Amino acid sequence: MTTSLPLPSAELISEKVASAVREGLSLRPRRLPPWLFYDEAGSRLFDQITKLPEYYLTRTERAIFLEFPDQILDCASEGASLSIAELGAGSADKTRLLLAGVAARQGAVVYEPVDVSPSALAAARQRIEGEIPSVTVAPRVMDYTNGLKFSPALCGERRLVLYIGSSIGNFEPADAARLLRRVRTALQPGDALLLGVDLVKDESTLLAAYNDAAGVTAAFNRNLLARLNRELAADFNPRAFAHRALWNAAQSRIEMHLESRVAQTVLLPALDLRVQFAPAERIHTENSYKYRPGQPEEMLIDAGFTPAATWTDAQSWFAVSLGRVE
Ligand code: AVI
Fold it and tell me: Phi then psi for 15, rounded to 5 degrees?
Protein backbone atom coordinates (compact mmCIF):
# COMPACT_ATOMS: atom_id res chain seq x y z
CA MET A 1 0.00 0.00 0.00
CA THR A 2 1.40 3.46 -0.85
CA THR A 3 0.88 6.66 1.10
CA SER A 4 2.04 10.25 1.00
CA LEU A 5 1.88 10.51 4.80
CA PRO A 6 5.11 9.98 6.72
CA LEU A 7 4.90 6.69 8.62
CA PRO A 8 5.66 6.77 12.35
CA SER A 9 8.93 4.95 12.94
CA ALA A 10 8.51 1.33 14.04
CA GLU A 11 9.64 2.01 17.60
CA LEU A 12 7.02 4.77 18.00
CA ILE A 13 4.15 2.43 17.11
CA SER A 14 2.87 0.73 20.21
CA GLU A 15 2.34 -2.97 19.47
CA LYS A 16 -0.61 -2.94 21.89
CA VAL A 17 -2.34 -0.14 19.93
CA ALA A 18 -1.43 -1.65 16.56
CA SER A 19 -2.77 -5.12 17.31
CA ALA A 20 -5.95 -3.82 18.99
CA VAL A 21 -6.73 -1.62 15.97
CA ARG A 22 -5.83 -4.28 13.39
CA GLU A 23 -8.05 -6.80 15.12
CA GLY A 24 -10.95 -4.45 15.92
CA LEU A 25 -11.24 -2.86 12.49
CA SER A 26 -11.14 -6.26 10.80
CA LEU A 27 -14.19 -7.45 12.77
CA ARG A 28 -17.81 -7.07 11.66
CA PRO A 29 -19.32 -5.08 13.27
CA ARG A 30 -16.10 -3.13 13.65
CA ARG A 31 -14.95 -2.25 17.15
CA LEU A 32 -12.19 -0.43 18.97
CA PRO A 33 -11.44 -0.94 22.69
CA PRO A 34 -12.33 1.95 25.04
CA TRP A 35 -8.86 2.17 26.59
CA LEU A 36 -7.82 3.79 23.30
CA PHE A 37 -9.76 6.92 24.36
CA TYR A 38 -7.19 7.86 26.97
CA ASP A 39 -4.30 9.55 25.22
CA GLU A 40 -3.40 12.99 26.56
CA ALA A 41 -6.21 14.82 24.72
CA GLY A 42 -8.71 12.06 25.55
CA SER A 43 -7.86 12.17 29.26
CA ARG A 44 -8.35 15.94 29.20
CA LEU A 45 -11.73 15.52 27.45
CA PHE A 46 -12.79 12.89 29.98
CA ASP A 47 -11.93 15.30 32.76
CA GLN A 48 -14.24 17.85 31.08
CA ILE A 49 -16.98 15.20 30.78
CA THR A 50 -16.91 14.64 34.54
CA LYS A 51 -17.84 18.32 35.02
CA LEU A 52 -20.74 18.39 32.53
CA PRO A 53 -24.26 19.00 33.89
CA GLU A 54 -25.56 15.89 32.09
CA TYR A 55 -22.78 13.60 33.37
CA TYR A 56 -24.30 12.84 36.78
CA LEU A 57 -21.93 9.95 37.62
CA THR A 58 -18.98 11.86 39.07
CA ARG A 59 -20.93 14.34 41.15
CA THR A 60 -23.31 11.66 42.43
CA GLU A 61 -20.49 9.41 43.59
CA ARG A 62 -18.76 12.44 45.15
CA ALA A 63 -22.01 13.25 47.02
CA ILE A 64 -21.97 9.72 48.47
CA PHE A 65 -18.39 10.19 49.68
CA LEU A 66 -19.33 13.57 51.15
CA GLU A 67 -22.33 12.16 52.97
CA PHE A 68 -20.87 8.92 54.32
CA PRO A 69 -17.10 9.33 54.82
CA ASP A 70 -17.12 8.10 58.42
CA GLN A 71 -19.40 5.15 57.73
CA ILE A 72 -17.23 4.06 54.80
CA LEU A 73 -13.99 4.37 56.76
CA ASP A 74 -15.43 2.73 59.92
CA CYS A 75 -16.70 -0.18 57.87
CA ALA A 76 -13.36 -0.63 56.05
CA SER A 77 -11.10 -0.23 59.06
CA GLU A 78 -13.09 -1.81 61.93
CA GLY A 79 -10.83 0.24 64.21
CA ALA A 80 -7.51 -0.72 62.54
CA SER A 81 -5.36 1.73 60.60
CA LEU A 82 -5.76 1.84 56.85
CA SER A 83 -3.64 2.27 53.76
CA ILE A 84 -5.44 3.21 50.55
CA ALA A 85 -4.78 1.85 47.05
CA GLU A 86 -6.65 2.97 43.95
CA LEU A 87 -6.98 1.26 40.58
CA GLY A 88 -6.60 3.95 37.93
CA ALA A 89 -5.03 7.19 39.10
CA GLY A 90 -7.83 9.37 37.69
CA SER A 91 -8.05 12.94 38.85
CA ALA A 92 -8.08 11.69 42.47
CA ASP A 93 -10.75 14.29 43.22
CA LYS A 94 -13.12 11.96 45.08
CA THR A 95 -10.25 9.97 46.56
CA ARG A 96 -9.04 13.15 48.25
CA LEU A 97 -12.19 13.18 50.39
CA LEU A 98 -11.44 9.70 51.77
CA LEU A 99 -7.71 10.34 52.13
CA ALA A 100 -8.36 13.50 54.13
CA GLY A 101 -10.68 11.47 56.41
CA VAL A 102 -8.10 8.72 56.97
CA ALA A 103 -5.31 11.24 57.53
CA ALA A 104 -7.44 13.04 60.14
CA ARG A 105 -8.02 9.74 62.00
CA GLN A 106 -4.52 8.27 61.83
CA GLY A 107 -2.29 11.32 61.43
CA ALA A 108 -0.68 9.87 58.28
CA VAL A 109 -1.65 7.52 55.46
CA VAL A 110 0.03 5.79 52.52
CA TYR A 111 -1.81 6.09 49.18
CA GLU A 112 -0.87 3.73 46.32
CA PRO A 113 -2.44 4.77 43.00
CA VAL A 114 -2.06 2.02 40.38
CA ASP A 115 -2.04 3.02 36.72
CA VAL A 116 -0.33 2.22 33.41
CA SER A 117 0.47 5.88 32.83
CA PRO A 118 3.54 7.26 34.67
CA SER A 119 2.43 10.81 33.80
CA ALA A 120 -1.05 10.29 35.34
CA LEU A 121 0.63 8.90 38.47
CA ALA A 122 3.09 11.78 38.69
CA ALA A 123 0.20 14.27 38.40
CA ALA A 124 -1.78 12.43 41.11
CA ARG A 125 1.24 12.43 43.40
CA GLN A 126 1.88 16.12 42.97
CA ARG A 127 -1.76 17.01 43.53
CA ILE A 128 -2.35 14.83 46.58
CA GLU A 129 0.93 15.47 48.40
CA GLY A 130 0.52 19.21 47.73
CA GLU A 131 -2.99 19.27 49.18
CA ILE A 132 -2.71 16.79 52.07
CA PRO A 133 0.89 16.71 53.32
CA SER A 134 0.15 13.84 55.74
CA VAL A 135 -0.49 11.54 52.75
CA THR A 136 2.53 9.67 51.35
CA VAL A 137 1.89 8.78 47.71
CA ALA A 138 3.54 5.55 46.53
CA PRO A 139 2.65 5.29 42.81
CA ARG A 140 2.67 1.88 41.14
CA VAL A 141 3.05 1.75 37.36
CA MET A 142 1.11 -1.38 36.43
CA ASP A 143 -1.52 -2.58 33.99
CA TYR A 144 -3.93 -3.84 36.64
CA THR A 145 -6.08 -5.53 33.99
CA ASN A 146 -3.24 -8.01 33.44
CA GLY A 147 -2.09 -8.63 36.98
CA LEU A 148 -1.95 -7.01 40.36
CA LYS A 149 0.49 -7.16 43.23
CA PHE A 150 0.59 -4.84 46.24
CA SER A 151 3.53 -4.17 48.50
CA PRO A 152 3.30 -6.09 51.82
CA ALA A 153 1.04 -4.28 54.30
CA LEU A 154 2.49 -2.96 57.55
CA CYS A 155 1.76 -5.08 60.61
CA GLY A 156 -1.83 -4.52 61.79
CA GLU A 157 -2.64 -2.25 58.87
CA ARG A 158 -5.53 -3.01 56.53
CA ARG A 159 -5.57 -2.13 52.85
CA LEU A 160 -8.63 -0.49 51.31
CA VAL A 161 -8.63 -0.73 47.50
CA LEU A 162 -10.75 1.82 45.65
CA TYR A 163 -12.21 0.91 42.30
CA ILE A 164 -14.57 3.80 41.84
CA GLY A 165 -16.00 6.05 39.12
CA SER A 166 -17.93 3.19 37.45
CA SER A 167 -14.70 2.09 35.74
CA ILE A 168 -15.78 -1.54 36.18
CA GLY A 169 -18.75 -0.76 33.89
CA ASN A 170 -16.46 -0.40 30.87
CA PHE A 171 -15.53 -4.11 31.06
CA GLU A 172 -17.57 -6.93 29.62
CA PRO A 173 -19.21 -8.89 32.48
CA ALA A 174 -16.80 -11.86 32.25
CA ASP A 175 -13.77 -9.53 32.18
CA ALA A 176 -15.16 -7.50 35.09
CA ALA A 177 -15.59 -10.72 37.11
CA ARG A 178 -12.02 -11.78 36.26
CA LEU A 179 -10.65 -8.40 37.30
CA LEU A 180 -12.46 -8.41 40.66
CA ARG A 181 -11.19 -11.93 41.37
CA ARG A 182 -7.68 -10.74 40.58
CA VAL A 183 -8.07 -7.91 43.11
CA ARG A 184 -9.32 -10.39 45.71
CA THR A 185 -6.30 -12.64 45.14
CA ALA A 186 -3.91 -9.71 45.75
CA LEU A 187 -5.50 -8.93 49.15
CA GLN A 188 -5.23 -10.35 52.69
CA PRO A 189 -7.91 -11.11 55.30
CA GLY A 190 -9.17 -7.83 56.78
CA ASP A 191 -8.53 -5.89 53.55
CA ALA A 192 -11.44 -4.49 51.57
CA LEU A 193 -12.53 -3.30 48.14
CA LEU A 194 -14.73 -0.24 47.61
CA LEU A 195 -16.52 -0.59 44.29
CA GLY A 196 -18.37 2.35 42.65
CA VAL A 197 -21.01 1.43 40.05
CA ASP A 198 -23.62 3.30 38.05
CA LEU A 199 -27.20 2.07 38.48
CA VAL A 200 -29.94 1.64 35.88
CA LYS A 201 -32.23 4.67 35.75
CA ASP A 202 -34.59 6.32 33.29
CA GLU A 203 -33.39 6.12 29.72
CA SER A 204 -33.43 9.86 29.07
CA THR A 205 -31.06 10.57 31.98
CA LEU A 206 -28.72 7.80 30.82
CA LEU A 207 -28.73 8.97 27.21
CA ALA A 208 -28.18 12.63 28.08
CA ALA A 209 -25.06 11.73 30.09
CA TYR A 210 -23.46 10.32 26.92
CA ASN A 211 -24.96 12.85 24.49
CA ASP A 212 -24.17 16.17 26.16
CA ALA A 213 -25.37 19.39 24.59
CA ALA A 214 -21.87 20.91 24.46
CA GLY A 215 -20.61 17.98 22.37
CA VAL A 216 -17.73 17.08 24.70
CA THR A 217 -18.58 13.35 24.64
CA ALA A 218 -18.75 13.48 20.84
CA ALA A 219 -15.27 15.08 20.78
CA PHE A 220 -14.05 12.39 23.24
CA ASN A 221 -15.40 9.65 20.96
CA ARG A 222 -13.94 11.18 17.77
CA ASN A 223 -10.59 11.89 19.42
CA LEU A 224 -9.98 8.16 19.14
CA LEU A 225 -9.76 8.58 15.34
CA ALA A 226 -7.38 11.54 15.71
CA ARG A 227 -5.22 9.28 17.88
CA LEU A 228 -5.10 6.63 15.16
CA ASN A 229 -4.17 9.31 12.61
CA ARG A 230 -1.29 10.44 14.81
CA GLU A 231 -0.03 7.08 16.02
CA LEU A 232 -0.69 4.91 12.99
CA ALA A 233 -0.56 7.52 10.18
CA ALA A 234 -4.22 6.70 9.44
CA ASP A 235 -6.23 9.17 7.35
CA PHE A 236 -9.56 9.19 9.22
CA ASN A 237 -11.58 12.38 8.81
CA PRO A 238 -13.10 12.46 12.34
CA ARG A 239 -15.88 14.81 11.13
CA ALA A 240 -16.97 12.17 8.62
CA PHE A 241 -18.06 10.03 11.60
CA ALA A 242 -21.07 10.89 13.78
CA HIS A 243 -21.08 10.28 17.53
CA ARG A 244 -23.85 7.85 18.51
CA ALA A 245 -24.79 6.89 22.05
CA LEU A 246 -27.65 4.45 22.59
CA TRP A 247 -29.23 2.51 25.43
CA ASN A 248 -29.17 -1.26 25.00
CA ALA A 249 -31.81 -2.33 27.54
CA ALA A 250 -31.34 -6.07 26.94
CA GLN A 251 -27.64 -5.80 27.84
CA SER A 252 -28.17 -3.01 30.40
CA ARG A 253 -25.52 -0.81 28.85
CA ILE A 254 -24.95 2.49 27.12
CA GLU A 255 -23.13 1.87 23.86
CA MET A 256 -21.02 4.43 22.06
CA HIS A 257 -20.38 4.16 18.34
CA LEU A 258 -18.79 6.21 15.57
CA GLU A 259 -21.05 6.10 12.54
CA SER A 260 -19.71 6.73 9.05
CA ARG A 261 -21.67 9.59 7.48
CA VAL A 262 -20.80 8.48 3.93
CA ALA A 263 -19.23 5.61 1.98
CA GLN A 264 -15.52 6.07 2.55
CA THR A 265 -12.19 4.27 2.54
CA VAL A 266 -9.68 4.83 5.32
CA LEU A 267 -6.02 3.93 5.00
CA LEU A 268 -3.91 2.80 7.94
CA PRO A 269 -0.52 2.41 6.26
CA ALA A 270 1.33 1.59 9.47
CA LEU A 271 -0.83 -1.56 9.65
CA ASP A 272 -0.91 -2.07 5.90
CA LEU A 273 -4.68 -1.90 6.26
CA ARG A 274 -7.42 -0.36 4.16
CA VAL A 275 -10.92 -0.18 5.65
CA GLN A 276 -14.04 0.48 3.61
CA PHE A 277 -17.04 1.93 5.42
CA ALA A 278 -20.56 1.81 4.03
CA PRO A 279 -22.83 4.78 4.79
CA ALA A 280 -24.11 4.45 8.41
CA GLU A 281 -21.65 1.66 9.18
CA ARG A 282 -20.50 1.87 12.80
CA ILE A 283 -17.39 1.35 14.87
CA HIS A 284 -18.43 0.25 18.36
CA THR A 285 -16.13 2.14 20.73
CA GLU A 286 -17.48 1.64 24.27
CA ASN A 287 -19.92 -0.18 26.51
CA SER A 288 -20.81 1.37 29.83
CA TYR A 289 -22.75 -1.18 31.91
CA LYS A 290 -25.41 0.01 34.35
CA TYR A 291 -26.33 -2.26 37.25
CA ARG A 292 -29.50 -3.01 39.19
CA PRO A 293 -29.57 -2.68 42.98
CA GLY A 294 -28.07 -5.81 44.56
CA GLN A 295 -25.84 -6.53 41.58
CA PRO A 296 -22.65 -4.93 43.00
CA GLU A 297 -22.97 -7.18 46.07
CA GLU A 298 -23.41 -10.22 43.80
CA MET A 299 -20.29 -9.25 41.87
CA LEU A 300 -18.35 -8.92 45.13
CA ILE A 301 -19.53 -12.35 46.34
CA ASP A 302 -18.67 -13.91 42.99
CA ALA A 303 -15.12 -12.53 43.34
CA GLY A 304 -14.71 -13.96 46.85
CA PHE A 305 -15.49 -10.86 48.94
CA THR A 306 -18.05 -10.61 51.72
CA PRO A 307 -20.30 -7.61 51.06
CA ALA A 308 -20.29 -5.43 54.19
CA ALA A 309 -22.32 -2.35 53.19
CA THR A 310 -23.61 -0.34 50.23
CA TRP A 311 -24.19 3.41 50.14
CA THR A 312 -26.32 5.18 47.54
CA ASP A 313 -27.49 8.72 46.83
CA ALA A 314 -31.05 9.93 47.52
CA GLN A 315 -32.19 9.02 43.97
CA SER A 316 -30.42 5.62 43.93
CA TRP A 317 -28.52 6.61 40.79
CA PHE A 318 -25.12 5.37 41.90
CA ALA A 319 -23.89 2.78 44.42
CA VAL A 320 -20.68 2.39 46.38
CA SER A 321 -20.27 -1.11 47.87
CA LEU A 322 -17.69 -2.37 50.30
CA GLY A 323 -16.57 -5.99 50.12
CA ARG A 324 -14.31 -7.43 52.80
CA VAL A 325 -11.81 -10.27 52.64
CA GLU A 326 -12.67 -12.65 55.50
C1 AVI B 1 -14.56 6.00 32.53
N2 AVI B 1 -15.96 5.55 32.35
C3 AVI B 1 -16.53 5.13 33.62
C4 AVI B 1 -16.80 6.51 31.62
C5 AVI B 1 -18.24 5.95 31.48
O6 AVI B 1 -19.16 6.67 31.86
O7 AVI B 1 -18.40 4.83 31.04
C8 AVI B 1 -16.24 6.81 30.23
C9 AVI B 1 -17.13 7.70 29.44
N10 AVI B 1 -17.53 7.47 28.22
C11 AVI B 1 -18.30 8.45 27.80
N12 AVI B 1 -18.43 9.32 28.77
C13 AVI B 1 -17.69 8.88 29.81
Answer: -65, -35
Question: How much is the pTM?
Answer: 0.95
| Mean pLDDT score of the chain | 94
Question: Does the Cβ of 286 fall within 6 Å of ligand 1?
Answer: yes
Measured from the Cβ of residue 284, the count of other Cβ atoms closer than 10 Å reads: 18
Confirm or reject: Cβ of 77 under 6 Å from ligand 1.
no
Q: Which whole-number Å values give the CA distances from 214 to 42, 49, 94, in the listed order? A: 16, 10, 24
How confident is the model at residue 2, as a pLDDT? Answer: 40
What is the best residue among 210, 251, 253, 320 to mutate for testing ligand 1's pocket, by most ligand atoms within 8 Å of CB? Answer: 210
Of 73, 69, 76, 74, residue with least CA distance to 325: 76
Measured distance CA(43)–CA(125) in Å, rounded? 17
263-272 burial, b if ≥16 CB within 10 A, otherwise e?
A: ebebbbbbbe
- Indicate the DSSP class of residue 91: -
Residue 300 backbone phi and psi in degrees, to 5: -65, -45
Residues 6+ apart with CB under 8 A from 74: none
Q: 288 CB under 6 A from ligand 1?
A: yes
